[in-house]
Specification:
Layout: H1 12-21, H2 27-56, H3 60-67
């Protein structure tokens, strides 16, 4: 017999996404939704990187120098 997967409660994100499944979106709306999710996570990643760079005292000159290192 195969072991039964343990039931884990859904995260708040999973719950919200499941709510969306009850709404029928057009292909255009679905594309827009995906783009918005991408923008959201890109913004959060950029904000985290900005905080990390600021905490370490990095500057635009540092980044430029790294781009030209071999």
């Amino acid at each position: 017999m195969m072991p039964q997967p343990s039931a884990q409660p859904l995260t708040n994100v999973q719950q919200e996404i499941l709510k969306l499944y009850s709404t029928e979106l057009t292909e255009e709306e679905l594309r827009d939704f995906r783009q918005e999710l991408g923008r959201y996570f890109a913004r959060k990643t950029t904000e985290a990187a900005d905080r990390a760079f600021e905490a370490r005292g990095y500057t635009a000159d540092d980044i430029e120098r790294w781009l030209h290192e071999e």
